[in-house]
């Protein structure tokens, strides 16, 4: 019976399985004795419910994906230094580090400047902010704090 209601809900809403599942979940729980089983009756029940209560609300997406939310800077330990390659049209090797933060999250952080002295188990200070040309890099390491040496730069 629910399969028939589902097919009618799909035709009535016309917008795919996500909406159909929400409509079925939103229906009030009633005994099967009260619910008519004919297709037109089920369609009328569904349309009447939609007319009274409106469309079911969609779940809002989580806007902030950063694990550093709520902190200006946070301390972490370098698990591994990695080299990332940027998206088109940029090229070159960008130095990054996988850092385990003190709140338990792991994040890939960009190491700015020319050269670095970071290795496994180095303690670093990480601030938020993503690198637009690097995929999944959503943090930056602060140079000159804890075990990370200040940026050398070009001589």
UniProtKB/TrEMBL annotation:
Gene3D superfamilies associated with the record: Nucleic acid-binding proteins
Q: List the keywords (alphabetical).
A: Ribonucleoprotein, Ribosomal protein
What GO CC annotations are associated with the protein?
A: small ribosomal subunit
- One Pfam family named in its UniProt record: Ribosom_S12_S23
Q: Which GO terms describe its molecular function?
A: structural constituent of ribosome
InterPro entries per record = NA-bd_OB-fold (IPR012340), Ribosomal_uS12 (IPR006032), Ribosomal_uS12_bac (IPR005679)
CDD domains reported for this sequence: Ribosomal_S12
Q: Which domain of life is it from?
A: Eukaryota
According to its UniProt entry, the protein's GO biological process terms are: translation
Q: Which family does it belong to?
A: Belongs to the universal ribosomal protein uS12 family.
Please identify the protein, giving its name as recorded: Small ribosomal subunit protein uS12m
Tell me the organism's taxonomic lineage. Answer: Eukaryota, Metazoa, Ecdysozoa, Nematoda, Chromadorea
């Amino acid at each position: 019976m629910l399969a028939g209601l589902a097919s009618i809900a799909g035709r009535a809403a016309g917008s795919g399985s996500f909406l159909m599942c929400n409509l079925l979940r939103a229906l009030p729980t009633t005994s099967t004795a009260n619910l008519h089983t004919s297709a037109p009756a089920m369609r009328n029940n569904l349309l009447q419910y939609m007319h009274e209560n409106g469309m079911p609300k969609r779940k809002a997406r989580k806007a902030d994906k950063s694990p550093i939310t709520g902190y200006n800077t946070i301390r972490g330990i370098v698990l591994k230094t990695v080299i990332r390659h940027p998206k088109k049209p940029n090229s070159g090797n960008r130095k990054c580090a996988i850092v385990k933060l003190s709140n338990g999250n792991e994040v890939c952080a960009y190491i700015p400047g020319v050269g670095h002295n970071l290795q496994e188990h180095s303690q670093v200070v990480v601030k938020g902010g993503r690198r637009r040309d690097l995929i999944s890099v959503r943090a930056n390491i602060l140079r000159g704090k804890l075990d990370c040496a200040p940026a050398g730069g070009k001589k």
